[in-house]
Amino acid sequence: MEGIIIKNISNDYVVLCKNGEYTCKPRGKFRNDKITPLVGDNVIIDPDNKYILEIKKRKNMLIRPSVANIDQAIIVSSVKEPNFSTNLLDKLLVIVTYNNIKPIICLTKLDLLNESELKEIDMYIKYYSSLGYTVVSNQDKKLIKELLKDKLTVITGQSGAGKSTLLNMLDKSLELKTNAISKALGRGKHTTRHVELYNIDGGLVVDTPGFSAIDLSDIPNIAIRDNMIEMYENLSECKYRDCMHIKEDGCAVKRKVENGEILISRYNNYKSFIERK
Ligand SMILES: Nc1nc2c(ncn2[C@@H]2O[C@H](COP(=O)(O)OP(=O)(O)OP(=O)(O)O)[C@@H](O)[C@H]2O)c(=O)[nH]1
Ligand SMILES: [Mg+2]
Ligand SMILES: [Zn+2]
Fold it and tell me: For residue 76, how far is its CA from the centre of ligand 2 (angstroms)?
């Protein structure tokens, strides 16, 4: 019988099939082959003996969070509590696009901003949109549901950003646990503890525990450059074909940062990624 793994707790995998859910163990074979089943895996199970018999070929996979066959990722970024961080957003955009996953930016807690703060965020929304990213707010319920339809979407972002809250807003029956940021950080714990896949009106969505630190250490510098749109698209205008936009002369990126065409925070974040700071 065919199904998809929607949850994993230690060695138990909950598999959603057409006629219901089955909690299965992986066959010993997988351990020998060093294959660990992941949430998002399409599998064949033996429903009588509750075993996973086969894992279908994966389209892609992420290590942290551990999810397979992802179509897109919603990067949840709060604009306050925790404060908006372009560094974190740009880092996640690089990680997601490097893994061939389409990013969607979802801003939360806009209701906590005053007018002048809203104006500043609006500038960022316009800039990221101009790069071609889809930018939504967690209030755009209808739009988000349309984006989720028929796709497997991972929800990622900092702890306390409002990932579980967003899913609860989309589907009240989920009743996911959420926690005030001060408490969440104070205890140094994540409210969401495990990776779990939910079906929201035909869209499969994975809630994940937020991270407090994440790094780009697996991604080579050239790939970081090529996964930041401005750093990649302006390369052809630089004097050197392999320009890293750092010390080189005749650099189109540095020129465009100076004349305001490229957002200074984007460039500074890029530099900090390249310099591994
Ligand atoms: N004012 C306001 N508060 C929000 C909004 N979204 C989330 N929150 C609050 O932010 C806190 C953290 O939300 P969660 O949904 O638990 O955050 P999370 O990203 O799931 O956190 P982890 O599971 O720890 O990774 C909760 O107290 C929410 O009520 C929002 O749009 N506006
Ligand atoms: Mg959560
Ligand atoms: Zn350059």
Answer: 11
Q: Are residues 91 and 168 in the same domain?
A: yes
Whether residues 66 and 187 fall in one domain: yes
Q: How confident is the model over 63-113, as pLDDT tens digits?
A: 777 899 999 999 999 999 999 999 999 999 999 999 889 999 999 999 999
Task: Answer whether residue 264 is part of any domain.
Answer: yes
Enclosing domain of residue 158:
62-207
The pLDDT value given to residue 185: 52
DSSP string, the chain: -EEEEEEEETTEEEEEETTEEEEEEEPHHHHHTT----BT-EEEEETTTTEEEEEPPPS-EETTTTEES--EEEEEEESTTTTP-HHHHHHHHHHHHHTT-EEEEEEE-GGG--HHHHHHHHHHHHHHHHTT-EEEETT-HHHHHHHHTTSEEEEEEBTTSSHHHHHHHH-GGG------HHHHHHTT--S--S-EEEEETTEEEEE---BS----TTS-HHHHHHTSHHHHHTGGGSSSTT--SSS-SS-HHHHHHHTTSS-HHHHHHHHHHHTT-
Same domain, 26 and 103: no
State the closest ligand 1 atom to the C-alpha of 189, by its place in the atom list counted from 1: 24
Cα(177) to centroid(ligand 1), Å: 10
186 pLDDT more than 50: no
pLDDT at 242: 96
Evaluate whether residue 214 is within a structural domain. no
- Residue 35 Cβ contacting ligand 1 at under 6 Å: no
- Ligand 1 binding pocket includes 109 (Cβ within 6 Å): yes
Domain-embedded: residue 213? no
